[in-house]
């Protein structure tokens, strides 16, 4: 029955009738050809002469598009920007993550998105360490070119007049004598401090001495420099930052790289980079409402100078991994009016016991690496509070001043952060961050018989210059990746929430 239905569809009712007469298949095909001859279209016939042509038939022809053809856009192999050795598919993944981040209007929510991931394997990076060879290591992972023995030209253009210096110097000498007098008093047998060890007492004395010197200089200069009255000063401030550093990709098929080590823990397969998380507690932090001026232009040749290539496994210099969530803390609360780094002062005594070091010069190396790490971490965290990130690079440099000292010896640092793209290869992003460092200098030699001996006027003048640099208001948008109507939360409720969240209460 089914065969008859198919035959009726293609050959007509006559063929079905023949089928019903139980004719053979060959006879049926012959009868069908006789009753339904095939249509033959000759070469010279026109379309209207074809038997199946219909002048009334309508067809949906495509409409003309005009002179310009409309095609869907062709997707480029790589997204906008420079990607180096990152594969095209992975580059698009990173690019889309950056676009999704821009859809979040508030900084707090962006930080939550960046930091609310599952714990990742990072190299926990204390900024004060005793291992050798860490200066080159810190330079490489922070992409920093180091300029030793000098500060930026802006310090040379500032003059400390004799009137100001002669007014401040006796006050600083008095602070030094007071701290020394307290040490003598505390050391008397009949007035021991039972809850402090000698090391704790020395650390406390150094921290208080630094704070007193800062207060004396700042209050003495407020008459001539009104910007010092607007600075926000805080003590024992946390500074934390998270970043990725490229350059650790494998160079052999067996998964080993040039030192013979396997891929270290925390290796990012997408960016071929390692993850780092730094942490530090600063003694004194001063922040301003406006940023410090840039020390040099981003186009200066110094910003593309070479840096040490330290592409070895970080475990070779005593670094270790641990699971952690990314954290960004620049030393102030989100939404604070004074949100730009002005001056950070650190005392090494709480972090490193100099008496336990095998060589006296080791402290200079430790101070140098700490100055680089502290400055970089503070500015990196600050950049994220302004809306920048590893997906959205800086549009202008960020600068800060860092001092490391114990009340008698001081080291001065000036840092300029030019790029956040440490996770891209140096060949693709040749721009470097710059750190200027002055060698350790002694403010005085000793205190004997109630007199400060060997006082160094140049060290005090350098301290004063750090307070004479004025923040400057920029003519461009400082937060280009945030909405134009963005206002940072500064009310009391959110301030308390931040206190509880970060454990500052």
From TrEMBL:
The keyword Repressor does not apply. It comes from the Eukaryota. InterPro entries: Ribosomal_mL37/mL65 (IPR010793), Ribosomal_mL65 (IPR039982). GO terms for molecular function: structural constituent of ribosome. Keywords: Mitochondrion, Ribonucleoprotein, Ribosomal protein. It is found in: Mitochondrion. The keyword Mitochondrion applies. GO terms for biological process: translation. GO terms for cellular component: mitochondrial large ribosomal subunit. This is 28S ribosomal protein S30, mitochondrial. It comes from Lingula anatina (Brachiopod).
């Amino acid at each position: 029955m089914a065969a008859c239905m198919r035959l009726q569809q293609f050959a007509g009712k006559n063929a079905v009738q023949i089928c019903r007469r139980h004719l053979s298949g060959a006879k049926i095909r012959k009868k069908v050809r006789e009753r339904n001859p095939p249509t033959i279209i000759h070469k010279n016939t026109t379309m209207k002469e074809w038997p199946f042509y219909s002048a009334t038939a309508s067809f949906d022809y495509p409409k003309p598009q005009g002179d310009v053809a409309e095609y869907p856009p062709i997707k480029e192999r790589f997204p906008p920007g420079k990607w180096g050795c990152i594969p095209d598919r992975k580059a698009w993944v990173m690019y889309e993550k950056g676009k999704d981040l821009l859809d979040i209007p508030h900084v707090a929510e962006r930080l939550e998105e960046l930091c609310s991931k599952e714990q990742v394997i990072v190299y926990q990076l204390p900024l004060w360490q005793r291992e050798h060879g860490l200066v080159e290591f810190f330079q490489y992972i922070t992409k920093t070119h180091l300029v030793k023995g000098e500060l930026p030209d802006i310090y040379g253009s500032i003059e400390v007049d004799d009137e100001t210096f002669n007014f401040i110097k006796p006050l600083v000498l008095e602070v030094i004598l007071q701290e020394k007098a307290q040490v003598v008093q505390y050391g008397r047998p009949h007035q021991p401090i039972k809850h402090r060890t000698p090391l704790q007492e020395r650390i406390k004395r150094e921290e208080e001495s630094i704070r007193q010197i800062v207060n004396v200089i700042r209050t003495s200069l407020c008459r001539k420099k009104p910007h010092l009255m607007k600075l926000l000063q805080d003590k024992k401030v946390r500074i934390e930052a998270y970043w990725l550093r490229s350059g650790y990709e494998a160079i052999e098929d067996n998964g080993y790289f040039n030192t013979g080590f396997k891929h270290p823990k925390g290796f990012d397969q997408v960016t071929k980079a390692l993850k780092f998380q730094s942490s530090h507690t600063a003694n004194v932090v001063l922040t301003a409402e406006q940023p410090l001026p840039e020390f040099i232009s981003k186009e200066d040749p110094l910003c593309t100078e070479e840096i040490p290539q330290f592409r070895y496994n970080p475990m070779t210099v005593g670094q270790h991994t641990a699971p952690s969530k990314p954290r960004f803390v620049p030393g102030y609360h989100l939404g604070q009016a004074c949100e730009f780094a002005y001056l950070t002062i650190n005392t090494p005594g709480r972090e490193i016991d100099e008496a336990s070091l095998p060589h006296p010069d080791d402290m200079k190396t430790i101070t140098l690496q700490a100055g680089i790490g502290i400055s970089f971490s503070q500015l990196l965290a600050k950049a994220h509070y302004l809306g920048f990130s590893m997906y959205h690079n800086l549009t202008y440099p960020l600068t800060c001043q860092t001092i490391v000292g114990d009340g008698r010896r001081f080291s001065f640092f000036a840092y300029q952060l030019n790029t956040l793209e440490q996770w891209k290869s140096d060949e693709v992003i040749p721009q470097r961050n710059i750190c200027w460092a002055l060698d350790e200098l002694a403010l005085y030699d000793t205190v004997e018989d109630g007199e400060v001996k060997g006082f160094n006027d140049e060290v005090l003048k350098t301290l004063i210059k750090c307070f004479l640099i004025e923040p400057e208001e920029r003519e461009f948008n400082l937060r280009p990746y945030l909405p134009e109507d963005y206002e940072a939360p500064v009310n009391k409720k959110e301030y308390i929430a931040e206190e509880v969240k970060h454990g500052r209460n």
